[in-house]
Write a structure and sequence with these properties.
The protein is of the alpha/beta class and 280 residues long. The protein has helices at 2-8, 31-39, 80-83, 106-115, 128-141, 156-165, 193-218, 232-240, 253-263; strands spanning 16-19, 44-51, 57-59, 119-124, 149-153, 171-175, 222-226, 244-248, 266-269. Strands 1-2-4-5-6-7-8-9 form an eight-stranded parallel beta barrel, surrounded by eight helices. α2 (31-39) links the parallel β1 and β2. α2 packs parallel to α4 (106-115) and α5 packs parallel to α6. The chain is globular, with a radius of gyration of 18 Å. The two termini are 31 Å apart. The relative contact order is 0.15. The model has no long low-confidence stretch (mean pLDDT 96).
Length: 280
């Protein structure tokens, strides 16, 4: 618990974590974003772990490269050599400032983050066994990560398997209520009546499970939750269980002041320098 506290609030004050490295301030999930986050005063960075077709762990939020790069296609069909040719800054609002940027490997991102003394939140999107294996080797290679990073995922199996592989790794569950039935912006995922209500039922079960037993079963130290569901009472309830709440994505100065001064809880943000819309 003591080590987890130092990772979650390293200076005994709420941590400011740059979402995908701070996707508003620099191209998301790039080394440039990590450097920019450090320069802008972030406590840490949240980085998304994905894999290329030939099994190389890289930073990428989506399963495809289309949204953020000048390339096209699914990661499961693209080798690392192919992915490396794409420009991850191509569709960013500040693309002119980030020419020559490459999609980084997980190792490159870790080295860059450690160089700037940033806490790392590894967000694992899926591929539980592959991700656990890659992270396990990384922790053994760079033992400093045990005191400076946390592995988080929406998927309880990823967190459970990580803890089984190495109990010294600090972990967190990520949760957005109604995520099976709705997109991040609140729009329903399905037009079909029965699919919508089936996923709503799944959401209710998942929410109950997350709050009642999965956190304990998975052995987590933190709960990363979508900010709309966070209150003083919510933070207090988790704190009574020895769990710290980290909210995402907190993007206005007013919200940040509320988290830092009232809730005294860490938060994940798309920008360290100005108010911005959330990046889904």
């Amino acid at each position: 618990p003591q080590r987890a506290r130092l990772i979650l609030q390293p200076r005994h004050t709420p941590a400011r974590i740059a979402h995908r490295g701070g996707g508003h301030d620099a191209p998301e999930n790039t080394l440039a974003a990590i450097r920019q986050a450090a320069e802008n005063g972030a406590t840490g960075v949240e980085l998304d772990l994905e894999f290329t077709a030939d099994g190389v762990p890289i930073l990428m939020h989506d399963e495809t490269v289309d949204r953020t790069t000048d390339g096209s296609g699914s990661l499961r069909d693209l080798t690392f050599a192919e992915v490396r040719k794409f420009n991850p800054a191509a569709k960013h609002r500040l693309w002119r400032d980030y020419r020559g940027e490459k999609i980084p490997t997980l190792r490159e991102a870790v080295l860059e983050s450690m160089h700037y003394d940033l806490i790392i939140y590894f967000d694992v999107k899926g591929h539980a066994n592959q991700a656990v294996e890659a992270l396990k080797h990384l922790y053994l290679e760079y033992p400093r990560l045990y005191n400076t990073s946390i592995v988080c995922s929406f998927m309880p199996d990823v967190v459970y398997k990580m803890r089984q592989a190495d109990r010294n790794v600090v972990t967190a569950l990520t949760h957005r209520p109604w995520s099976f039935s709705h997109w991040g912006d609140g729009k329903p995922r399905f037009d079909s009546f029965w699919k919508h209500y089936l996923t709503l039922a799944l959401d209710v079960v998942m929410d109950w499970s997350m709050h009642n037993f999965l956190w304990h079963f998975c052995g987590v130290s933190a709960f990363l939750v979508q900010k709309n569901f966070v209150s003083q009472e919510y933070v207090r309830q988790w704190s009574a269980k020895g769990i710290q709440v980290v909210a995402w994505t907190v993007n206005t100065i007013a919200e940040k002041m509320y988290y830092e001064n009232v809730l005294q809880a860490s938060y994940i943000t798309d920008s360290l320098i100005e108010d911005c819309d959330p990046h889904y």
